[in-house]
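JOB MANIFEST
job_type = single_chain_structure
chain_count = 1
residues = 236
[input]
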Amino acid sequence: MGSYAAPHAGRTVVIRLDLVGFFASVTVGCVYGVLRTAGYPGPVAHCLAGVMTTVLPLSAWRSVPRPTDPGLLDAHWRLGRRLATSHLPHGAPTSPALANLAAYRLDVRLTALAASWRGQYTRYADDIALSGDRGWHPRALQILDIVEEIARSEGFRLNARKTAVLPRAGRQLLGGLVVNQRPHVSRAEVDVLRATLHNCIRDGPRTQNRENRAAFQLYLAGRIAWVAQHDPVRGT
């Protein structure tokens, strides 16, 4: 996550975007193409592509509640169409690498776009970030239009509801890290964690495990490690 956020630290403008149904957008045809490009013979690539993709049964899709917000109905319908065709399954160990390979052209084109504006581009799975300094703020909408066009041409769609243009005057948040100056966990999140640990010492961990996590102390250790990774002093 640090490599996703760090290149955008200290920038005048950060643009945060999200790809809709990232894994579902990578079809069995894309996976086959990736495997053939990697050198696998056609029959082997065909067999592997079938093993590494899945289709959501219609009965399972019908059990998914439709969104109550009318503005989300189109996105819900498009997701259903994607899931009804062979695609990368979410959670499979092979899906992240295959999805990244399928998005290689997207990364190359958006890297070139950002560089042409003297900016930076990174992606972490379905999270996209671009940033720059001079000229980026007044032209942010133009940049967004170009990004959307490139994404569509590469078989992906942007989630307009998660698009954000973040000027330096406000909090620039990427992947859970504030990048206004350097990547770090927000003060508010650290304060909550500090209070939780204090209460654990005073009243016992059970009193703080409000979500009934099976391994609550390991969960807390993970959160501490997350803070320490980006700020060793606070982590200590």
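[summary]
Strands lie at 13-18, 120-124, 127-132, 164-167, 173-174, 177-178, 184-185.
The CA atoms of residues 25 and 156 lie 6 Å apart.
exit_status = 0
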